[in-house]
Write a structure and sequence with these properties.
Order of helices and strands: EHEHEHEHEHHEHEHEEEEHEHEHEH
Oligomer: single chain
CATH class of the largest domain: Alpha Beta
Number of domains: 2
Radius of gyration: 20 Å
Strand content: 15-25%
Shape: elongated
CATH architecture of the largest domain: 3-Layer(aba) Sandwich
Structural class: alpha/beta
Number of strands: 14
Number of helices: 12
């Protein structure tokens, strides 16, 4: 039984989350706190496996309490964020501080959207409860620059990256190590649509490469990473020797839109052996069949290893399918990607 502590200043949200969580059978809310002080006492007395934590609370806010908790009594935490851009900035900060995942409170007047997604919420709590949190690199610590800036790459290369739970920090770890003159990159990270623009902006401020939220029918340029918006699948098309983005509001795949599988399948078709695929930490199996398609099309494929994953779900599934050429610790992935690109360039020359 996974024991959950719910922390939210709204009595309605405490009741609603308790109802949704307890309906899971293997999940049980063992306490519900309206503020940080009560939560602090419940943490000591109840020793939960995972905690949901509201970002906006009176007195000590959720971010401050999260920071205190991760220093004194680390445990998996799912943040509960207000809808919209201000909430997304705080949610991203929570992930940097060590939160495993973020649940977005639905905007407007309907709570039915939350109830419709109840099983997804329970799955995310299950993944959070099993997350690896010890030894995570602290927010603000700079990534070591292990990739030489003078490396050049042949045209036509493409890098595709997919991630889910724990992926915001993993993607940051990889991208901040890349040199400015990388081939074009396409990325899917499972996150709400109100978060992706803020996430891209945050990455852009930290990386040598440019990072932007992908738009429809953009030419994919070297030195630029295109992040799928939270409302659409991201695909790659090749037209006249150039790669272009395509956004689709098609049905969710593996319960996700954007889906890593959708991206990877399109990259397999568009780029074949010119691509490198990277699958990072995340729950579930999204991306594994798509990575197999990339592998069969001649792409070089890498997976994050279990020891460095927050949740070893997506990489494990890709490895199990035989879709992965190489498994590496997170901090080695960027250098290996560049090494493979440089090797391919020399081979082409």
């Amino acid at each position: 039984m996974i024991r959950v502590l719910v922390v939210d200043d709204s009595a309605l949200w405490r009741l609603l989350l308790t109802e949704l969580i307890n309906a899971g059978g293997d999940l049980k809310v063992i306490g519900a706190a309206p503020d940080a002080q009560t939560a602090r006492e419940m943490l000591r007395a109840l020793n939960p496996d995972v905690m949901t934590l509201d970002i906006e609370m009176p007195g000590m806010d959720g971010l401050s309490f999260l920071g205190e908790t991760m220093r004194s009594r680390p445990l998996p935490v799912m943040m509960v964020s207000a809808y919209g851009a201000p909430g997304s900035e705080k949610a991203l900060r929570a992930l940097e501080l060590g939160a495993v995942d973020v649940l977005e409170k639905p905007g407007g007047k309907s709570l039915e959207a939350l109830r419709r997604g109840a099983e997804d919420i329970r799955d995310r709590l299950r993944a959070a409860a099993g997350a690896r949190i010890a030894g995570r690199r602290q927010a603000g610590a700079p990534a070591t620059a292990v990739v030489p800036a003078g490396v050049h790459f042949a045209p036509g290369r493409l890098v595709a990256i997919g991630a889910s739970t724990g992926g915001t920090e993993a993607i940051k770890e990889v991208l901040t190590r890349f040199p400015e003159k990388m081939p074009g990159m396409v990325i899917v990270q499972h996150m709400p649509e109100s978060f992706t623009a803020s996430f891209a902006k945050r990455l852009d401020s930290l990386c040598r490469v440019r990072v932007k939220e992908a738009a429809h029918n953009e030419r994919i340029l070297p030195g630029t990473a295109y992040l799928a918006p939270g409302h659409s699948h991201l695909l790659v098309r090749r037209i006249g020797g150039h790669y272009f983005t395509e956004l689709s509001r098609g049905e969710p795949v593996n319960r996700h839109r954007p889906s890593v599988d959708v991206l990877f399948h399109s990259v397999a078709e568009a780029a074949g052996g010119q691509a490198i695929g990277v699958i990072l930490t995340g729950m579930g199996k999204d991306g594994a069949p798509g990575m197999l398609a990339m592998h069969r099309a001649g792409a070089w494929t890498l997976a994050q290893d279990q020891a460095s994953c927050v949740v070893y779900g997506m990489p494990r599934e890709a490895v199990a399918l035989g879709a992965v050429d190489e498994t590496l610790p997170l901090e080695q992935i960027a250098a290996r990607v560049v090494s493979r690109l440089a090797t391919a360039e020399r081979a082409c020359g």
